[in-house]
Design a protein that fits this description.
By secondary structure, the protein is mostly helical. The chain has one domain: MFS general substrate transporter like domains (Growth Hormone, Chain: A, Up-down Bundle), CATH 1.20.1250. The chain is globular and about 60 Å long. It comes from Gemmatirosa kalamazoonensis. This is Major facilitator superfamily MFS_1. It holds the Pfam family MFS_1. Keywords: Membrane, Transmembrane, Transmembrane helix.
């Protein structure tokens, strides 16, 4: 085991693979929601608690666990989290009631924060001129994990039921833990590299508030990211229900297959990274707002056709992921010893936005159908556009 990591191509691919396999845990439930609702005999609005609790749990995990990447050795932290999420996935597979499944989802979310420990690790190892491309590569792995999760869970749910999907996920996490125990190097925490870094957990958490108050680029990037992910989550939380109702009448397998179209997001991420390396990440965010707005117009006008939804998914995934890479590249241009905590503030805000988007999407679907969901998504992008115009105009921010 090497004492100090080198950012070789193979090591970067390992980080991308680990991030993708881990983040998939957050998305397995989305295509399965109609099947879960039928199992427990509940409405679409009630079963959405599974997706919402998972995202809320993730936000809590980001707040409580990711900052530890600046305080403790990251390899040990990653392995502990993988062990915990394996147990949570097994619990979800055996949940006898919807509330217990939602509680298991919250635990899955809280312990699925490994990607957000690996992204700042990669960013800190990269030379400044290549940081955007490196972040883009790892985020591409995350995006492939997200789309694969939807495809695999839809197929597994159709073939052997939704409970089996959580057992498959647990087996994958166990295998990943064994692989990273062998290959993930030990890296010194910020506390060992920076005399000004917090040396206690309480001081570490308090420093998050200070960073949010003192870093305007962080506030801008996190707020815009939250709006993007709110619209994104409103769509994916309700897509399976849209496909399950007239005039479409498709099941979880088709809902999961739409995840394949998310490959556009994986392709957009490294392109956005190159823009970031040229010093124009915020312009890429502005372009992403326009792309996603077009996606929601398509969902509204052609949402009763497969081609209309498919075209919208291509645009929505590409725009959302390009915005995420661009916003994260902006915060990683700030001092390296802050990276884990900067990423914590960014991702907590991001997933709180996602959780609110899931709730808003489910409520809109229950009250106003697909048109209501489209109103939530497009309205969120309008707010993002106003923030973009009013935000910082510096070239690097």
């Amino acid at each position: 085991m090497p004492n100090a990591p080198r950012l070789t191509g193979a090591f970067l691919w390992l980080l991308a693979l680990a991030a993708g396999l881990s983040v998939a845990n957050l998305y397995y439930n989305q295509p399965l929601l109609p099947d879960i609702a039928r199992t427990f005999g509940v409405s679409a609005a009630r079963v959405s608690a599974v997706a919402t609790s998972t995202q809320v749990g993730y936000a809590v995990g980001l707040l409580l666990f990711v900052p530890l990447g600046d305080l403790v050795e990251r390899r040990r932290l990653v392995l502990a989290l993988l062990a915990a999420v394996t147990v949570a996935l097994v619990a979800a597979s055996a949940a006898p009631t919807l509330p217990l499944l939602a509680a298991s989802g919250a635990l899955i979310g809280a312990t699925t924060v490994v990607p957000q420990i690996l992204v700042p690790l990669a960013a800190g190892l990269a030379p400044p001129a290549a940081r955007g491309r490196v972040v883009g590569r790892v985020v591409s792995g995350i995006l492939v994990g997200i789309l694969a999760a939807r495809v695999v869970s839809g197929a597994v749910g159709r073939l052997v039921g939704w409970r089996a999907m959580f057992l498959v996920a647990a087996a994958l996490m166990l295998a990943l833990a064994l692989a990273l125990a062998r290959w993930l190097p030990r890296t010194p925490p910020a506390a060992a590299r920076d005399a000004d870094a917090p040396t206690s957990y309480g001081a570490l958490l308090r420093s998050l508030v200070t960073l949010a108050r003192e870093q305007p680029v962080l506030r801008d990037a996190a707020s815009l990211g939250a709006l993007f992910f709110a619209a994104f989550s409103a769509f994916w939380t309700t897509l399976a229900f849209r496909l399950d109702t007239p005039p479409l009448h498709y099941g979880s397998a088709v809902a999961g297959a739409f995840g394949l179209l998310g490959i556009t997001g994986a392709l957009a991420a490294p392109i956005a990274g190159r823009f970031a390396d040229r010093g124009t990440p915020r312009r890429a965010v502005g372009a992403a707002i326009a792309v996603n707005a077009v996606a929601w117009v398509l969902f509204l006008l052609a949402g009763d056709t497969l081609w209309g939804i498919a075209a919208g998914v291509v645009l929505l995934d590409a725009g959302t992921q390009a915005a995420q890479v661009s916003n994260q590249s902006r915060i990683y241009a700030l001092p390296a010893p802050l990276h884990s905590r900067l990423n914590t503030v960014f991702m907590v805000t991001y997933f709180v936005g996602g959780a609110l988007g899931s709730v808003a999407g489910a409520v809109a679907w229950a009250g106003w159908g697909w048109a209501g969901v489209c109103g939530v998504g497009f309205g969120t992008l309008v707010v993002a556009g106003v923030m973009y115009v009013a935000g910082p105009k510096r070239r690097d921010g």
